[in-house]
């Protein structure tokens, strides 16, 4: 059964985006606790590319499918999990990359929706925080996706966020989304 094509984020309202996100049912990976079975021989590179045995996985539908069974363990490691199998997967930074942004509203009434490289759509808010961490190569913004899994906000999307934030009349560089304020200046 083929996966449905991804909707065009630019043509959707945030109400449409919220409905699509609510309709997407993910497997209950947090309830599955099979014995550890080994290594998947898979890796997710910093740029969001998925690899198996050193070769990129070229089929987008396979990556989308694998992303639905990805889980972060309490020790910070990542696994692919089914009801009968649990396999390690190496994640270089974050397992997802936010590749597209949709902003509606202004100030406290703003909502920010992100499309991930997996096709998931996540709206920043109290349950999906947006944070900026300082690293040796500069600030890196992250979006909480689910269950401890994060998306690295892609550079072009980060620039869009910063342009929006700099256009706001505020004492602090940051943006509101779904009633929560997210500072983008890297300060805690």
What does this molecule look like?
- This protein is an alpha+beta fold.
- 16% of the residues lie in helices and 39% in strands.
- It contains 3 helices and 14 strands.
- Strands 3-2-1-6-5-4 form a 6-stranded mixed β-sheet.
- The protein starts with 13 loop residues before the first helix and ends in a 5-residue tail after the last strand.
Summarize the topology.
Blueprint: H1 14-23, E1 36-44, E2 50-52, E3 55-56, H2 60-67, E4 70-72, E5 78-81, E6 86-91, E7 96-104, E8 111-116, E9 121-123, E10 130-135, E11 138-146, E12 149-153, H3 155-167, E13 174-177, E14 180-183
Parallel strand pairs: 1-6, 7-12
Antiparallel strand pairs: 1-2, 2-3, 4-5, 5-6, 7-8, 8-9, 10-11, 11-12, 13-14
The main β sheet shows up as: 6 strands, mixed
The counted number of beta strands is 14
Structural class, please? Answer: alpha+beta
Our estimate of the beta-strand percent is: 35-45%
Distance between the termini: 46 Å
Q: Can you tell me the overall shape?
A: elongated
